[in-house]
Design the sequence.
């Protein structure tokens, strides 16, 4: 049996704590060996909670510990620098979404990935949910016919206190964006996964329910795909009290709807309805959501990819594409014109 891969959490904030909990549940596949954070009190607390060493810098951790994977859980604009540092230290990487906040930064990540030959995966865990995977398989086997349209909603709510909980939250320079860049990007990634290559974007954004932030709390977009399919996107942190992600995809031979992490509707002219039991998570750890389980599965996929010498299911190409569309939404909203993604 292979030894568990040794994983360091880089960034001990709320998301870092989530990742630490996921890593602790990997069993024989992976184990947490270090926590890195500039905030010593916060970093030491998370490290102590898991019984692992604390380091104040990633470079120090890479020198001192035998680390196989760095899990980058820093504010968005710091992702690329942290990923490149890990890769150049000979460490594979899991990085939280978004890959970073500019395409130049994403390109630096991909250049370092190619130069080092190491593995990088961007967190997009919703692809690992059973219903999302089923819908994608249905598309691949032609059960929905030619894909014609899709609608995805990420109608979340964040109170004012959320944006006031960190001086970087709601900033254009570090957060990179608002409801779309940081929450709706997961839903956007699902839409892109289902409908393919986007070619143009028309969008509007607004800052309607929060004060003192530089970014949007509502974004709406129309996305045209290479196939001719049309996608509609809503991302919000101003939709009280907040709803689960909803995805509907339509084709010439069928429709599938994912709602509240379940398959709420499926119809196909050529395929039978799925066994509902096959689309339900079983043996879910106490206190875990379906999204937590999917997050855990992405870790397992990355570990398997490293062991097998293949690319992970979710690549830097996927992360860059999602970021490109987010930035196109912002550009279209700013200029009032469609954005051609070929340019």
Sequence:
């Amino acid at each position: 049996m292979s030894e568990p891969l040794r994983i360091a959490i880089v960034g001990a904030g709320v998301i870092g704590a989530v990742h630490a909990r996921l890593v602790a549940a990997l069993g024989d596949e992976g184990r947490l060996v270090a926590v890195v954070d500039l905030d010593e009190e916060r970093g030491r607390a998370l490290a102590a909670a898991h019984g692992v060493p604390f380091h104040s810098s990633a470079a120090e951790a890479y020198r001192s510990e035998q680390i196989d994977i760095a899990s980058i859980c820093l504010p968005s604009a710091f992702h690329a620098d942290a990923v490149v540092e890990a890769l150049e230290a000979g460490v594979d990487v899991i990085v939280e979404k978004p890959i970073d906040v500019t395409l130049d930064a994403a390109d630096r990540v991909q250049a370092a990935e190619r130069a080092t030959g190491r593995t990088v995966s961007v967190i997009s865990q919703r692809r690992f949910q059973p219903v999302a995977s089923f819908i994608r398989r249905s598309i691949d086997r032609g059960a929905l016919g030619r894909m014609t349209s899709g609608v995805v909603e990420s109608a979340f709510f964040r109170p004012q206190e959320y944006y006031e909980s960190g001086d970087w939250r709601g900033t254009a320079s570090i957060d990179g964006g608002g409801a779309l860049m940081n929450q709706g990007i997961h839903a956007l990634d699902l839409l892109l996964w289902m409908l393919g290559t986007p070619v143009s974007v028309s969008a509007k954004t607004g800052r309607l329910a929060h004060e003192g932030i530089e970014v949007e709390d509502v974004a709406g977009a129309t996305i045209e795909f290479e196939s001719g399919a049309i996608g509609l996107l809503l991302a919000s942190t101003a939709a009280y009290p907040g709803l689960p992600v909803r995805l509907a995809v339509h084709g010439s031979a069928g429709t599938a709807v994912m709602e509240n992490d379940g398959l709420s509707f499926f119809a196909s002219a050529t395929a039978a309805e799925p066994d509902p039991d096959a689309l339900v998570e079983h043996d879910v750890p106490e206190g875990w959501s379906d999204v937590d389980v999917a997050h855990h599965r992405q870790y397992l996929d990355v570990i398997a990819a490293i062991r097998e010498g293949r690319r992970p299911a979710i690549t830097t190409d996927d992360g860059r594409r999602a970021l490109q569309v987010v930035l196109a939404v912002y550009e279209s909203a700013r200029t009032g014109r469609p954005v051609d993604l070929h340019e």
